[in-house]
Amino acid sequence: MTTTPSQRTTPLHQVHEQAGASFTDFGGWLMPLKYGSELAEHQAVRTSAGLFDLSHMGEVRVSGPEAAAALDYALVGKISAVKPGKAKYSLVCTEAGTVLDDVIVYRLDAAEPDADGVVDPGTEFLVVPNAGNASAVAAALSERASQFEATVTDESAQSALVAVQGPEAARILTGALVESAAVEIVEMKYYSALESTVRTEQGEVPVLVARTGYTGEDGFELIIGPEPDAEQLSAQATAVWNALVSAAEQCGADLLPCGLASRDSLRLEAGMPLYGNELDLEHLPAESGVGPVVAYKKEGDFVGRASLEAARERAETEAAEGTDTRQVLVGLQGEGRRAARSGYPVLDGDGAVVGKVTSGAPSPTLGHPVALARVDARHSAVGTALQVDLRGRPEAFTVVELPFYQRER
């Protein structure tokens, strides 16, 4: 694919070209779709490990004495309860309660006093939004934090993000980091983060290592930067990428570079929502499978609170009266071989439309089609038999529990 003037490329674009990647437009970015077989890339993550370039994602730093309070107001979660070195999934909602974006928030400030026994009274967080929403999230956070003693800095253009995902991820990563970090990485809990250093042929590169991911497997995301010099950022990201490849070779682990195609099929199997499919400006969190993310019990106001509370009260009243008009997100398992796709109508046993597919594909791991769909609440119980209109031909699907796939822990 030829780059257009409006498309952006990541600091690792040359690496992907040299690896023979096929590219696609994603949120205004020219991103690797696949390098060879998307099925092989998917299976590599499930059985060994895959390497992803996620540098299109945003990085927005929020710091200052009232940074936690600012994020409590800006997001629907209780960010002030996040401990240093931990992470939390949350949502940026509009005043109407719909979803502007879903984000991961990392708390970075130190938990221990420094050498002089002083604990920094300020707080520091890194908010990671989706690629196409990064500028909108940065603007929203800046506006919402303006009434607090907090500073919002959009570092997206100065940062790179690489992910290694799969059962072999920890073994590969420990081989790439400085020797002193090996124990820390192995003992890291899910949704935690720490600052570390990657050993590369060009020298040591500082990174923020997070045990998070979007595949349903164990894995890590490495944030490089902020580095204002674009060439230097590209050199550092390339060095980290190559160090991970070398570490896999040295420990005998299979590691494949993976594109967006396998990332999408992996996240779908894991039942993880995608902005633009399950999440958007038209639907509330409760309609998109992320209702529990909203912290109604936290003190103080937050953007969208009034609308979300009103919608919850309305839903409770309708449920009690037997007049439930809500739609909810469910998992669907296909009974045949044909896969449902985003936008396809969901039908009840009488052929009436009761919902719409938000994401769907064949599951390489499970061997049958799976889909996420938003359907009328009265048709959402596990075991409910439904149909999906596959271009004029109804195909049988059944409501199942999410996630479709869950790794052994």
Describe this protein's structure.
The protein has 409 residues and is an alpha+beta fold. It folds into three domains: 13-55 and 159-258, Gyrase A, domain 2, CATH 3.30.1360.120; 60-157, Alpha-Beta Plaits; 269-294 and 326-400, Aminomethyltransferase beta-barrel domains (Elongation Factor Tu (Ef-tu), domain 3, Beta Barrel), CATH 2.40.30. Helices cover 24% and strands 29% of the residues. The protein has a six-stranded mixed beta sheet. The chain has a six-stranded antiparallel beta barrel with strand order 14-17-16-15-18-19. The protein is globular and about 65 Å long. The mean pLDDT is 95. It catalyses: N(6)-[(R)-S(8)-aminomethyldihydrolipoyl]-L-lysyl-[protein] + (6S)-5,6,7,8-tetrahydrofolate = N(6)-[(R)-dihydrolipoyl]-L-lysyl-[protein] + (6R)-5,10-methylene-5,6,7,8-tetrahydrofolate + NH4(+). Residues 329-405 form the Aminomethyltransferase C-terminal domain. The glycine cleavage system catalyzes the degradation of glycine.
